[in-house]
# Entry
Amino acid sequence: MTAAIQIDRVEKSYKGFKALKGVSLSIEQGEFFGLLGPNGAGKTTLISTIAGLIRPDVGSVRIHGHDVVTDQRQARMKLGVVPQELVFDPFFTVRETLRLQSGYFGLKNNDKWIDEVMENLDLTAKADVNMRALSGGMKRRVLVAQALVHKPPVIVLDEPTAGVDVELRQTLWKFISRLNREGHTVVLTTHYLEEAQAMCQRVAMLKTGNVVALDTMSQLLRRVSGSSLVVHLKHGTLPEGLRHLVAHDEHDEGKNNGGNKYTLRVNAYNEVEGILARLREGGAEIDEMQLQQADLEDIFLQIMDGAPVR
Amino acid sequence: MNFFSVGFRTLFYKEILRFWKVATQTIAAPVVTSMLYLLIFGHVLEGKVQMLEGVNYTAFLIPGLVMMSVLQNAFANSSSSLIQSKITGNLVFILLPPLSHWEILSAYVSASVVRGLAVGAGVFIITAWFAHLSFVAPLWIVVFALMGAAILGTMGVIAGIWAEKFDQLAAFQNFLIMPATFLAGVFYSIQKLPPFWLAVSHFNPFFYMIDGFRYGFFGKSDVSPWTSLAIVAVFFAVLAAVAINMLRRGYKLRH
# Structure
């Protein structure tokens, strides 16, 4: 099956600054794919390249087999993009905005689908309200609706939940999940890693224009293997025999989360008992203790810090 | 290229709707401005100067004012729409869909023509009461109004794409469009100019638009309307080629 998005060795520079350094990715049809990275990693440049807003210096991007530069009409028909910036046209109402966007994609008499999109994004009550009069969250919903008016098989969401309330997030993810179940490919960039962990089946992490990790969510989480035991000691210090378990950043930098607090890596729950026994034997008394499950944020931080991921 | 595609019609409709929603500013205001020009210049110069034989000054002035309104408003429509969209970022809604370069250019230019003609018609309806106007060759009136509006609409597209801020667009308007319009014979016949400026005026394409347009009213002009039409048509073709090339290359639009 043709890839939903095929990115081959894409490079892009701006005035000497290399934003993308040979990025290659293949996103399959029907995937819920996460594109993660810190600010300046090249996520938005990559998305703009996919959307045809930026032309790559080297390499190519194909949407369902259509090159975004040489076969742009077909490629754009397959793609719906929710831009990161909260942009809108102040002259029009919500319904006018959506009808116009639908028309740009060559679709007329598309009101049934427009009504359905508005209904699913809780926009129906605002249909005849001017865009200027909407709150930030509502404007964000309209941006999402605009990306969906032509029922694109590939939906790209560039930080769709930035600065929006919980209600919109839930409404949005419910609708996007439904579209994904119906076969739409979804590509998501977000700084909310818990969202990415909950939604994405596969993730690519970008750092300074390079893909530094590309794997399924389950494989990535397996790589950070296990959990962390956070102990706050009332008396005593961490016994020498447990020092090798201290999380790398605390170990390397000589930190211990302030005072007598240590974060210890735990590969399996049955290791907890042994750690507690060693603390007791070493004369340490525990004030507080917490067992934390490793999550996407842990591996994200490890990868971005350049630390080896187990 | 499909001038009747849904994409073209939608963008054209959006551009019409955009200026119509602020018609006081985009239609009524320029009509009032032209009315003021007529009242002041007509009152001061009527009976004192004669630009064309057998045509009083107010009658001479009206076609010039109408055409000036057509040209300036056609330019203002496409240029202001594009620069606003670029600065607010909503141009992305035009750049993401599969609209061709031709669809984009023709939609912006067509809407500019509509606004230019709407303002021109408004100016004519208001000012025509002040003088007896003849319509010797109405087809020339229509042809030059359409061509002039299309040319300025295309120039507006070029300026809107080129400018990165309102300041640059204002410079384009104030240092290029405005002088070229005023020095094209809106208020006078270039035959009244000294030889040097008479020669210079012949290099101003705006002069041919206004001169040809005026010919339609009085059957008199500084140069033959066919010559004017040929020059205007070539000028339009060159500008359209420049605009299409900018859109095709994604100049200042797709980085």
Observations:
- Chain A has two domains: 5-221, 226-293.
- Chain A has a mean pLDDT of 86.
- The longest helix of chain A spans residues 166-181.
- The interface with chain B takes residues 14, 48, 51-55, 72-74, 76-77, 79, 81, 83, 85, 87-92, 96, 100-108, 146, 150 of chain A (CB under 8 Å).
